[in-house]
Amino acid sequence: MAKRVKFEIEGMKELERTIRKLGKLPQKCVTPAAKKGARIALKAARANAPWETGELSNGIVLKGERARKKGKKVYQVTLDPAKNDIFVKTTKDGKRYYYPASMEYGFITRDGGYSPGFHYLRDALMDNKTAIERTVVDELAKQIDKLK
């Protein structure tokens, strides 16, 4: 007959306490961690933005979502609505277009051809995904350690 073996993991109770605290993580821990990660994407988006006018890279900003849930913070790398007067362009025949969107997604040229987009916003996130995740986790760990 097999003997029962009893295992005890050192630090398990402390780990359980930490996990319970994570479920009730205060907003003051989450916000700086999310913002630090979003800044990486912001810098990359500004660096990747087309430089034809120069205004496009200056118009990329971070916008924080107003969360209803405690322990959640979302930042959006987006275009500054205050600069819409600069971003909305008109063609010679009077058609209006949004310059940042045409640079991101591409556009149809006058002769019917297609000019592909630069994807500066998408690439800012995709190229830096691991760096953003690592930064958010590291900052969150620092904030949790401050609470202890």
Structure described in brief:
By secondary structure, the chain is α+β, with helices and mostly antiparallel strands. The protein has seven helices and six strands.
Task: Explain this structure.
With 148 residues, the chain is of the alpha+beta class. It has one domain (27-147). Helix content is 51%, strand content 15%. It contains 7 helices and 6 strands, in the order αααββαββαββαα. Strands 1-2 form a two-stranded antiparallel sheet. The longest helix has 22 residues, at 27-48. The radius of gyration is 23 Å and the shape is elongated. It starts with 11 loop residues before the first helix and ends with a helix. The model has no long low-confidence stretch (mean pLDDT 83).
What distinguishing features does this structure have?
single chain, 148 residues, alpha+beta, two-stranded antiparallel ribbon, 7 helices, 51% helix, elongated
